[in-house]
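Predict the 3D structure for this chain.
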Amino acid sequence: MSAHTWKSMIALLALVFLLTACGGAKSDAAAQTVENYLTALVAQDADQLSTSSCQAWEENALLDMDAFIGVTASLDQMACKVSGTDGDTTLVTCEGKILATYNNEQQELDLAGQTYQVVQEGGEWRVCGYR
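Done. Predicted structure below.
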């Protein structure tokens, strides 16, 4: 192979690596936002929940948090990942459970039942609902 061909191949590989790395950062940030949101939800941390929510979803997020009043809740084996996109919305799914205890009775809420909608707002990733 000629020197020009080698340089072209190296440039192409570098471009592919760069694009893969950038896509991973987007995925990681969106998934981490959902993990932060769920952590704030079970901890009943209204400030963090609001920070993790888009403006249009903030009131709904706080209503979801109200469901945990009087309940001891924790996350079990939570892991979130980007599952796709819908226009400007990044879709995130999670595995694991919310363990909620009320009057010594424990309930398990499977996280796999929801797809979280994550958007960029104010330069930050924010949860903006679920499906």
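The first strand starts at residue 72 and ends at 86.
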